[in-house]
Q: What sequence folds into this?
C-alpha cells in the first residue's frame, strides 16, 4: 500500500469520509492545486468536497507528515545511543499522536545535567538498579552502601551515596510514560488551575487589569479558554503566578503503591520518601507545564476559531459600492484629516478641517466640506470611529441637514487603519502623502469595499478577536490567511482595479505574481481578456488555471470573463448558446434563457452535473457579489459619550466583536459595550455566533454603566 493510500485511510477514519474521496483530494493538493480551485472547479473529482472538508483533509495530512518526521528523528536519536530495542521500535512505529510519541522519547531525550546525571557519572547506576529491583538483600543498609563511598567522586559517606542513587530512581520513575499519562489524565479530570498575585505586585501599575485573578482557582474541566488566556497574559506581564493544583494526596498515594511495593526491602522507607520527592520535584512541575500547555493549545484553537469567524464576517461585510467617497479621520487638536476618492478608490484631494474643540471652526469646516462635495460629486462620507468621531459625525450630520445635501453619512471602524497607514504598502501607494491622509483614504475605501481595503492590513490589527497577541502566532496567521483567501475567492477580484495585496490572495497567485500583474497593468494598460494573463512575467499555465475563474474583467472582449465560469468551461457555454439558438453575449446574464437549459444535456467526459449546474447558475447572474446589501447604523445624536448613558436607554449599534462569552457593540460613545451571552436572546445561547455576527446592526438596552471600570453592560432582551 503506497503512502498516499495509507494517509487517506488514516484520515478517512478520522474524518468519517470515504477513502477514495480523500485520496483524490490529496492527489490534487500534491499536484499543486489550491483549495478554492478544487472546491469550486473539481467537484466531480472529489465527489463534492467543500472548502471546509478540504481544509480538514489538508490539516490532517500535515499532522500525519509532522508525526512521521518526528518519529523518524526520534528513531535515529535512540538508535544512535544504541538503545533501540525491538519492543521500543514497535511502540514508536505504532504511536498515532505526537504527545504520546514525545512521552515515549522522554527517557532517551538528551538532558541537561541533572542530579541523576551527576549520580550516574559517579557510578551509582548499579545501586539505583538494586533499589529499583526492591529485592530483600539481608544486609544492613550501611553495608550495602559502603562500597560506593568514594570521596574523590564527591561521595564522602553513605548518606551522599544513597541520595545520589535515589536521584536516579526518582528520574527513572518520572520518565515512565504510563505514569505520566495517567497523571495528566487525572490532572485534566480533577485538577485546578490556580492564579495568584505575585508578592509585591498588587499595587503595581497595570496590576488592576488582572484583579479578578489575584486569587482564583478553577477546575480544569470548567475553565473557559478566554479566562486561561487572561491568566497567562497576567503571568507574562509579571503580575501573576499560574499553576496546576491537586487538592488531595490520592495521586501521590497511588504512585507510592505502584512504585514502592516491598515492605520487607531494606530501603522501603527511603523509596517512599523518594516517591514524594519525585512527585513534588519532578512530576508535578512537568505535568503542570504539560497540562497548561495542552489547555493553552485548546484555548488558542478556540480563540483563533472565533477570530476567524469574526474576520470572515467583517471581510464579507456589505460594500457601499463604487461611489465617490469622502473619508474623515477625526481629531481634536491636530484637526480632522479629509480625503476624497473616486468611485474606484483613486485618490483625488485632501485637506484638514477643525470643526471641533479647541478651534470649533464649524463655519470654515462646513464651507470646505460643501465645496469638496460639489466639486467631486461626493455621494458617501465615511467618518472614522476613533477620537472625536461623534463630534465630527454630529458636525457632518448638521451640515447635511442644514444644506439638504444628497450624501449618505456612515461611521466606519478604523481599527488597524493607523498601522496600515505606516505600512510599506501605504508608503508605496502614497509616498508623498502624510500618514494621517493615508488613514483618511483607507477609511473612505473601507466604506466602498471593506474586503478590498482590509486585505492590505495585518488581520490581527483589525480588532475582531481577543488575545490575538497571546495565542500561537503561527496557527493564528495560518487561520487568518485562509479566511482572507476564502473570502477573496468567494467574492472574486476585478483584475483591472485590484491592488497587489488583494490579488495576492487569489488562488494560485501569491505576492510576487500579484506585483507582476500590477506592473504589467501599469506598463501595458488594462487587461481586455483573461487569457492575456499568460503574458505576465512568470505567470505560467498552472497559475492561470488556478486563478482565472476568480478574476473578473468588466466590459471585456469575452463576456464570460466577468463571471465565475472558468475558461476551461467556455466551450461548453458556446454549446449551450447554440442549443438555445442564440449567441454568447445574449445568453450571459439572461436568466430567462439560462433557466431553459437542462444540466444533463451537457454532461460529458470532462464535466459532470455539479459543474454544469454551477455554470448555468452563473450564466443567470454572472459575477454576482455574494455579500449582503449595504446598511449603515444610525447612532443616537443625543448620545455622544459614556456620561450620556443611563440605565434603560435603548440604542442602535453595530456588532464589532463576537467571543465565547458574548459580543461587543459600538453604540457611539468611543467605548464598546458588552452584551453578555446571557443577554443575547430570551432562550439559552450556547454559541454567540449563532445569534449575532460582526457588522450586524442591532438595538440594545443599557443595563449598567461603570465609567471608572470602563465597562458598559447592555442587553438585547427588552
A:
Amino acid at each position: 500500500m503506497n503512502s498516499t493510500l495509507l494517509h487517506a485511510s488514516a484520515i478517512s477514519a478520522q474524518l468519517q469520509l470515504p477513502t477514495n474521496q480523500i485520496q483524490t483530494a490529496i492527489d490534487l493538493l500534491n499536484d499543486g492545486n489550491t483549495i478554492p480551485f478544487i472546491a469550486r472547479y473539481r467537484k466531480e473529482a472529489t465527489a463534492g468536497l467543500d472548502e471546509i472538508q478540504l481544509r480538514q483533509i489538508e490539516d490532517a495530512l500535515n499532522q500525519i507528515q509532522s508525526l512521521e518526521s518526528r518519529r523518524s528523528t526520534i528513531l535515529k536519536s535512540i538508535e544512535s545511543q544504541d538503545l533501540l530495542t525491538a519492543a521500543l521500535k514497535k511502540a514508536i512505529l505504532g504511536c498515532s499522536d505526537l504527545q504520546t510519541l514525545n512521552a515515549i522519547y522522554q527517557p532517551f531525550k538528551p538532558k541537561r545535567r541533572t542530579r541523576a546525571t551527576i549520580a550516574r557519572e559517579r557510578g551509582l547506576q548499579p545501586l539505583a538498579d538494586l533499589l529499583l529491583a526492591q529485592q530483600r538483600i539481608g544486609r544492613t543498609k550501611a553495608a550495602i552502601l559502603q562500597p560506593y563511598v568514594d570521596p574523590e567522586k564527591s561521595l564522602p559517606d553513605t548518606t551522599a551515596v544513597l541520595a545520589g542513587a535515589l536521584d536516579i530512581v526518582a528520574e527513572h520513575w518520572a520518565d515512565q510514560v504510563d505514569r505520566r499519562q495517567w497523571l495528566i489524565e487525572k490532572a485534566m479530570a480533577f485538577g485546578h488551575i490556580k492564579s495568584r498575585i505575585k508578592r509585591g505586585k498588587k499595587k503595581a501599575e497595570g496590576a488592576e487589569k488582572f484583579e479578578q485573578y489575584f486569587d482564583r482557582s478553577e477546575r480544569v474541566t470548567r475553565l473557559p479558554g478566554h479566562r486561561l488566556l487572561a491568566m497567562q497574559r497576567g503571568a507574562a506581564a509579571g503580575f501573576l503566578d499560574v499553576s496546576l493544583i491537586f487538592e488531595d494526596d490520592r495521586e501521590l498515594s497511588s504512585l507510592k503503591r505502584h512504585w514502592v511495593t516491598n515492605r520487607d526491602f531494606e530501603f522501603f522507607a527511603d523509596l517512599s520518601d523518594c516517591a514524594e520527592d519525585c512527585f513534588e520535584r519532578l512530576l508535578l512541575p512537568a505535568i503542570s507545564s504539560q497540562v497548561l500547555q495542552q489547555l493553552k493549545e485548546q484555548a488558542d484553537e478556540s480563540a483563533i476559531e472565533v477570530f476567524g469567524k469574526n474576520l470572515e464576517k467583517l471581510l464579507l461585510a456589505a460594500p457601499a459600492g463604487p461611489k465617490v467617497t469622502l473619508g474623515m479621520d477625526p481629531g481634536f487638536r491636530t484637526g480632522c484629516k479629509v480625503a476624497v476618492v473616486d468611485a474606484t478608490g483613486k485618490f483625488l484631494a485632501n485637506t484638514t478641517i477643525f470643526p471641533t474643540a479647541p478651534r470649533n471652526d464649524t463655519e470654515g469646516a462646513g464651507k470646505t466640506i460643501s465645496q469638496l462635495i460639489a466639486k467631486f460629486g461626493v455621494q458617501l462620507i465615511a467618518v472614522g470611529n476613533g477620537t472625536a468621531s461623534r463630534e465630527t459625525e454630529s458636525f457632518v450630520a448638521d451640515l447635511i441637514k442644514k444644506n439638504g445635501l444628497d450624501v449618505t453619512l456612515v461611521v466606519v471602524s478604523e481599527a488597524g487603519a493607523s498601522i496600515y497607514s505606516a505600512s510599506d504598502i501605504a508608503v508605496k501607494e502614497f509616498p508623498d502623502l502624510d500618514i494621517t491622509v493615508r488613514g483618511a483614504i483607507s477609511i473612505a475605501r473601507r466604506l466602498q469595499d471593506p474586503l478590498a481595503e482590509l486585505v492590505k492590513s495585518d488581520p490581527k490589527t483589525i480588532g475582531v478577536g481577543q488575545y490575538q497577541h497571546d495565542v500561537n502566532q503561527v496557527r493564528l496567521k495560518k487561520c487568518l490567511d485562509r479566511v482572507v483567501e476564502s473570502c477573496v475567492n468567494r467574492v472574486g477580484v476585478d483584475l483591472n482595479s485590484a491592488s497587489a495585496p488583494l490579488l495576492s490572495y487569489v488562488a494560485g497567485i501569491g505576492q510576487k505574481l500579484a506585483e507582476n500583474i500590477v506592473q504589467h497593468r501599469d506598463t501595458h494598460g488594462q487587461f481586455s481578456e483573461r487569457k492575456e494573463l499568460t503574458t505576465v512575467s512568470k505567470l505560467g499555465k498552472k497559475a492561470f488555471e488556478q486563478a482565472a475563474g476568480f478574476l473578473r474583467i468588466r466590459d471585456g472582449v469575452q463576456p464570460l470573463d466577468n463571471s465565475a465560469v472558468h475558461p476551461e468551461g467556455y466551450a461548453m457555454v458556446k454549446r449551450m448558446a447554440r442549443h438555445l439558438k442564440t449567441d454568447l453575449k445574449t445568453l450571459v446574464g439572461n436568466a430567462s434563457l439560462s433557466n431553459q437549459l437542462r444540466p444533463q444535456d451537457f454532461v460529458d467526459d470532462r464535466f459532470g452535473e455539479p459543474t454544469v449546474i454551477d455554470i448555468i447558475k452563473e450564466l443567470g447572474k454572472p459575477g454576482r457579489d455574494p455579500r449582503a446589501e449595504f446598511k449603515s447604523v444610525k447612532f443616537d445624536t443625543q448620545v455622544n459619550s459614556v456620561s450620556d448613558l443611563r440605565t434603560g436607554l435603548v440604542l442602535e449599534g453595530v456588532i464589532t466583536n463576537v467571543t465565547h462569552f458574548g459580543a461587543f457593540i459600538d453604540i457611539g460613545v468611543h467605548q464598546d459595550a458588552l452584551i453578555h451571552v446571557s443577554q443575547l436572546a430570551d432562550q439559552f445561547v450556547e454559541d454567540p455566533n449563532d445569534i449575532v455576527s460582526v457588522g450586524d446592526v442591532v438595538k440594545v438596552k443599557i443595563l449598567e454603566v461603570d465609567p471608572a471600570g470602563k465597562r458598559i453592560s447592555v442587553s438585547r432582551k427588552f
In short: The mean pLDDT is 93. Residues 115-302 form a domain with the Tex N-terminal region-like fold (CATH 1.10.3500.10).
